[in-house]
Specification:
mainly alpha; MgtE N-terminal fold; CBS-domain; Tetracycline Repressor, domain 2; 3-stranded mixed beta sheet
């Protein structure tokens, strides 16, 4: 609300070209607050305000804008001016923004970038999407192991302006092969021994990421070892860059969003919900709804196959919603638990036998409990014609819960094994399969008991 009230004053400053006031506005607050107060300005107005900030501060404020605002500014403002801003951005952020811009705009901006920056952008673009190389930054503190503590501090003071972070100092040889690591804390602690070399201080047992490794696996490593950053190396163990904790947060959020979409049978959105065109959103939802519709339609054929049995024992139809929903719900629970565990790294494909044993055990316990409730409800309510007939319900519930938990757990593991996203085997798909299987199990159990 405050930023909305502030907009008229900002626009008045722009109309008066009040340089003193606009410079003070850009410098008085934290860059995040400055960016927040500018929400509601057009891209042109925002850029005019930003030009009153020095370039490093301009870049810092710019990073706090929403992705949509950032892209709007880069695509509409003077190419020469925005290219200066792009050079100031962290390497990974720079590449992401240019990739989002795409097309003719990038072709106009790239030639305006310094040759070293341009080569770096093209090199990072060459890595596969969602790989470690695609999300890393090349701005890392790299030092030689022969440097003393004093020399290292002097070298860091020279490098610091171009570094994204100095939590860790990476020790490399003359050809950039990663040799070890010294934390900034360890270096500061060793100030009292200025002649100690980095080779004496460094840790050599490092956790690193291969440049082609999947970003989700890298995020799991960072979380598992509680790292602030992780070095990225090639197949010869040459250090290419680092992935910092803030990049990992972005990866986790992106992967979690994709999984949430797929679990709900929605193709993941490339932008936010409100900025995605309505026809694109319709397609991403409709394509999976169509597949689910076809799967659900098969349920009608399954029921038709058992039409005679349902005519003979009409009371069986009264329990169909109970049978189908119980099977679907148990499958959904298992699928959600396994998909989440796979995403967190708590479960891998190698654990399939343990998962199967646990789900069979849970299926027996849950199915037995629900079966007892179902038998009491069917016989006690008088819906089933007799105690023997009522036995159809608990037996079916036991079998369908076991089947549901097994399918819900195994199918995501199978998808992971063949290299597909386990979240594709989401709850709606599991429920669709269990619906058909539930009808088959239900009617066959009924025939086996009632035809006696």
């Amino acid at each position: 609300m405050i930023n909305t009230l502030y907009l008229p004053e900002l626009r008045e400053m722009l109309a008066d070209s009040s340089e003193t006031d606009l410079r003070e506005f850009c410098t008085a607050l934290h860059p995040a607050r400055t960016a927040e107060f500018m929400e509601g300005l057009s891209a042109d107005e925002t850029w005019r305000v930003l030009k009153y900030a020095d370039l490093p501060l301009r870049e810092e404020i710019f990073t706090f804008f929403s992705p949509e605002t950032q892209l709007d500014i880069l695509s509409t403002q003077d190419r020469g001016e925005v290219s200066e801003l792009i050079v100031e951005l962290a390497a990974d952020d720079r590449v992401d923004l240019l990739e989002e811009l795409g097309g003719d705009i990038v072709d106009e901006i790239l030639p305006l970038l310094p040759s070293e920056v341009r080569r770096e952008v093209l090199r990072l673009w060459a890595y596969p999407e969602d790989s470690a190389g695609a999300v890393m930054t090349t701005e890392a503190a790299k030092l030689s192991e022969v440097l003393t503590v004093k020399e290292a501090l002097d070298e860091l003071s020279k490098q610091s302006e171009s570094l994204e972070t100095i939590y860790y100092l990476y020790i490399v040889d003359d050809t950039d092969h990663l040799r070890g690591l010294v934390s900034a804390r360890e270096l500061i602690s060793a100030i009292g021994k200025p002649q100690t070399t980095l080779g004496e201080l460094m840790e050599t047992d490092l956790v690193s990421a291969d440049v082609l490794e999947d970003q989700e696996e890298v995020a799991q490593k960072v979380a598992r070892y509680d790292l602030l950053a992780i070095p990225v190396v090639d197949h010869e163990h040459r250090m290419l860059g680092i992935i910092t904790h803030d990049d990992v947060i972005d990866v986790v959020r992106e992967e979690a969003t994709e999984d949430a979409h797929r679990i709900a049978a929605v193709e993941p959105l490339e932008g936010s919900y409100l900025t995605t065109p309505i026809f694109t959103l319709t397609w991403k939802r409709g394509m999976w709804l169509t597949i689910l519709f076809v799967a659900a339609f098969l349920t009608a054929f399954a029921l038709r196959h058992y039409e005679d049995g349902l005519k003979t024992w009409v009371w069986l139809a009264w329990f169909l919603p109970l049978i189908i929903s119980t099977g679907g719900n148990s499958g959904n629970q298992a699928a959600t638990l396994v998909i989440t565990s796979l995403a967190l790294g708590d479960v891998s494909v190698r654990d399939w036998l343990r998962v199967v044993v646990r789900e069979v055990a849970m299926g027996l316990l849950l199915g037995g409990f629900l079966g007892a409730l179902g038998y009491a409800a069917a016989w006690g309510s008088g819906l089933a014609p007799g105690a023997a007939a009522a036995a159809v319900i608990p037996i079916t519930l036991l079998l369908i819960v076991i089947a549901g938990t097994l399918l819900g757990a195994v199918l995501p593991l199978l998808f992971q094994r063949v290299g597909l996203d386990p979240a594709l085997m989401s709850s709606p798909f599991v429920a669709g399969i269990i619906d058909i299987l539930g009808i088959v199990i239900y009617m066959n159990v009924a025939f086996a008991i009632l035809y006696r």
